[in-house]
Design goal:
The protein is of the alpha+beta class. It is 21% helix and 18% strand. The chain has a four-stranded antiparallel β-sheet, covered by helices on one side. A hairpin with a 5-residue loop joins strand 1 and strand 2. The relative contact order is 0.20.
């Protein structure tokens, strides 16, 4: 049984799937990330996503280096603005290339960020491992935690 307590405004039909998901998570995944945890990239993603689920937010991979020695994870609400990868017009017009005027913008400037670094276990050692580091472990009141973490598509897809 989980120690997670559902928010009072959460409908009853949503509580059971959330409790079931949290009960199926390893207990250490429900604890805040700690500097120096040794995890491979897949383990780190699952561990961080499980922690985020239990807290009411979601993580995304924001960058990784070409040498595959560094991966940065951030809250889905990171950044100040969204990227306009398709170079759409600012607003929808008849002649323009934007199809929707109102879209879901998640950028809230959240500073929560952790990274995974592949480095020597001890200084100068040939044996290497992936180490977890924390850039910023706070959301700094930039957004509310979501009462229903299944509202994030990433969390909904990860459930059996």
């Amino acid at each position: 049984m989980t120690s997670w307590t559902p928010p009072s405004n959460l409908p009853d039909f949503v509580i059971a799937p959330i409790c079931e998901a949290i009960d199926n998570m390893p207990p250490q995944h429900l604890l805040p990330p700690q500097v120096g945890e040794i995890l491979d990239p897949d383990q780190a993603y699952n561990r961080l996503q499980n922690y985020a689920f239990s807290q009411g937010f979601c993580i995304v991979v924001t960058s990784r280096d070409k040498a595959n020695t560094y991966i940065r994870f951030a809250c889905i609400h990171h950044g100040q603005t969204t990227h306009n990868w398709h170079q759409l017009d600012e607003h929808r017009t008849e002649e323009g290339n934007r199809q929707k005027e109102y879209t879901n913008i998640r950028a809230r400037g959240c500073p929560w960020q952790v990274y995974l670094s592949y480095k020597g276990i001890t200084k100068g050692a040939e044996q290497k491992a992936w180490f977890l580091g924390i850039t910023n472990g706070s959301h700094a009141d930039t957004h509310d935690m979501v009462p229903n973490p299944l509202a994030y598509p990433i969390h909904a897809k990860r459930q059996p």
